[in-house]
Amino acid sequence: QVQLVESGGGLVQAGGSLRLSCSASGSIFSINTMGWYRQAPGKQRELVATTTSGGNINYADSVKGRFTISRDNAKNMVYLQMNSLKPEDTAVYYCNLVQRITLAAASRRDYWGQGTQVTVSS
Predict the structure, then answer these.
(1) From 21's CA, which of 4, 44, 69, 77 has a CA 20 to 30 Å away?
(2) pLDDT given at position 30
(3) What is the pLDDT of residues 44-100, one digit of tens each?
(4) Residues 118, 77, 91, CA angle at the centre, nearest 5°?
(5) Do 28 and 76 touch, CB atoms closer than 8 A?
(6) How far apart are CA 55 and CA 67, in angstroms?
């Protein structure tokens, strides 16, 4: 079992910045993918950014050039630096971890944090 705890959300003005942190604990394997998703009211949950333990990174088009994801494998933490925030970034942001106990697809396990609210005022 894995537990994820997010922090760093809050209320900021458009153009401002926030840094989200996620701390992972439990049965975490060395090879995994961690990332951030968000869900705005009335919207589907969407991918924001992911990073693998090997360093590969993917961003949603809507945040490219503004957000930066990073991780500290030794501390089992992942971060999301959010700059130039826009009102449309307002959402609950969720930390995510995906890992496999083997290479078999059936062994995939997906874990989520409780979410942290980010509100960007216009």
Answers:
(1) 44
(2) 85
(3) 999 999 999 999 999 999 999 999 999 998 899 999 999 999 999 999 999 999 998
(4) 15
(5) yes
(6) 16
Q: What counts of helices (H) and strands (E) characterise the chain? A: 0, 11
Quick one: which of 29, 23, 25 has its CA closest to 116?
A: 23
Half-sphere exposure of 66 (CA within 13 A, CB side): 16
From residue 98, how far is each of 11, 18, 60, 110, 112 by CA, in Å?
A: 29, 24, 18, 5, 9
Number of other CB atoms surrounding residue 61 within 10 Å = 6
Averaged pLDDT for residues 116-120: 98
Contacts of 12 (CB under 8 A, 6+ apart): 18, 85, 118, 119, 120, 121
